[in-house]
Automatic annotation (TrEMBL):
Pfam families: Ammonium_transp. This is Ammonium transporter. It is a multi-pass membrane protein. Keywords: Ammonia transport, Membrane, Transmembrane, Transmembrane helix, Transport.
Length: 440
């Protein structure tokens, strides 16, 4: 037995990741409530069904090999022979390490076993959030079969690969100078690109850009649901941010890229961004007479600041938060001009998500990042420097990683069973079509 695996420090570290992992579920609830409030009344039930099943499929797929693929970066840096093969062997869902109590695992072989096992769940919930956002950007139009196929492919391969490439202290792009504290590039840029491609292939909902011959049009059924969902997301974001830290008792607190930070710094910056975005969103909502920006404003502020929660200053976080909703509104207007019906995820991705990542690279150019304790060159802590060009490269890489498979899957279903729901389904409502439930 290895009692150091269940020391007070080890248990507290594991518990922090438990809180972060469970908090992502609050985001899933929030997204479900937002989507259910914004769809037509005859689509609410099926929207919830698709949200649940999408998360189940994507989460289970990610559980199989997701954490193992992410661990690949560590096995490579530590010089493990055949690093990908060994990481898959050690950390796939059915491995001996994943099944063993922490106290039975030698810390020389598996340091912080409880924390690593819990982190695999945090990684799974990250994948669930990814596919939940994909559903949010395609709700009311997409058939279930292509949606679930997308969730499976994203959870099994694409989400883990995006995280391996861009998120972590030893990921390939982090080692070149990319900095992304909360995975904003791997999450928002990925999902925004995916939903934009899918929205393009499906076409707009009836009545969005021009009057429909039968009078169909988008009709939010409950702003109360939207507001409540946004509050769930607001509540979860600070707790999720803790999961992107390395907490090393007696040594310090570091962001996911090993940039030095503190728990207080991270939480303070999160709230600065949320509140700045909230005020900015409220002003925009009043000016545009679009109440949805009151609820999306804080989220846009957090997305804008997510890459630098660990290294930003307080006023910088407020400024980023204020700017986030403005950029989201601008992108939403561009998408309308392009007649692309994706008003939720893509504006966050291509406004605050992309711009926040690049602007953060500009303002913090030269700040030390990447590496891991006890490793020598070229992986010594702080061996890389943040740079704007690497932020741009990271954004472009993730856009390509999402756009190509999204297009391929769309084309496959267009040529077979269909990507978009039928006109009859859109007219009658998804609840009536699939579940025999008509809105009273």
């Amino acid at each position: 037995m290895f009692l150091e695996q269940v020391s007070t420090d080890s248990i507290l570290s594991a518990f922090i990741y438990v809180i972060s992992a469970v908090s992502v579920i609050l985001v899933l609830v929030g997204l479900g409530m937002v989507d259910a409030g914004l769809v037509r009344a005859g689509n609410v039930l099926h929207t919830w069904v698709q949200k649940f099943v999408t998360c189940f499929v994507g989460g289970l797929a990610a559980f199989l090999f997701g954490d193992a693929i992410w661990q690949w970066q560590f096995y490579s840096a530590f010089g493990t022979p055949h690093p990908l093969r060994q990481a898959l062997s050690d950390w796939w869902l059915g491995s001996a390490i994943m099944a063993a109590p922490a106290i039975t695992l030698d810390p020389k072989l598996v340091a912080g076993a409880d924390t690593q096992q819990v982190f695999s769940v945090f990684f799974v919930t990250f994948a669930m959030a990814t596919v939940a956002l994909v559903h949010s950007g395609t709700a009311e139009r997409i058939r279930s079969a292509p949606l679930y196929a997308m969730a499976f492919v994203i959870g099994l391969i694409l989400c883990p690969f995006a995280a391996w490439l861009t998120w972590g202290p030893l990921s390939p792009l982090t080692n070149a100078g990319l900095h992304d504290f909360e995975g904003a590039v791997a999450l928002y840029v990925f999902t925004g690109t995916w939903t934009l491609v899918t929205a393009w292939r499906m076409g707009p909902r009836a009545g969005v850009f021009a009057p429909d011959a039968e009078g169909l049009s988008p009709a939010p059924n409950s702003y109360a649901s939207v507001a409540t969902g946004a509050l769930f997301v607001f509540m979860a974001i600070p707790l999720i941010a803790l999961g992107s830290t390395w907490i090393m008792p007696g040594k310090g607190v570091f962001g996911i890229t090993m940039a030095q930070t503190g728990i207080g710094v991270v939480i303070k910056n999160v709230f600065c961004a949320l509140l700045g975005g909230g005020v900015s969103g409220a002003i925009l909502a009043a000016w545009l007479r679009e109440p949805v920006w009151v609820f999306f404003g804080p989220i846009a502020g957090a997305v804008m600041t997510g890459t630098i929660f660990d290294i930003a200053g307080s006023l910088e976080s407020v400024a980023f938060g204020v700017l986030g909703p403005v950029l989201a509104v601008l992108v939403s207007r561009v998408l309308v001009r392009l007649r692309l019906d994706e008003p939720k995820v893509a504006p966050l991705a291509f406004g605050p998500g992309m711009c926040g990542s690049i602007l953060g690279g500009v303002l913090h150019c030269g700040t030390a990042t990447a590496g891991f304790p006890d490793l020598a060159a070229p992986y010594i802590v702080g061996h890389a420097q943040i740079g704007a060009w690497m932020q741009i490269e990271g954004v472009v890489a993730i856009m390509l990683l999402a756009a190509v498979p999204a297009w391929v899957i769309c084309r496959v279903f267009e040529a077979t069973s269909g990507l978009r729901i039928s006109r009859d389904c859109e007219r009658e409502g998804m609840d009536a079509t699939y579940w025999g439930r008509r809105q009273e």
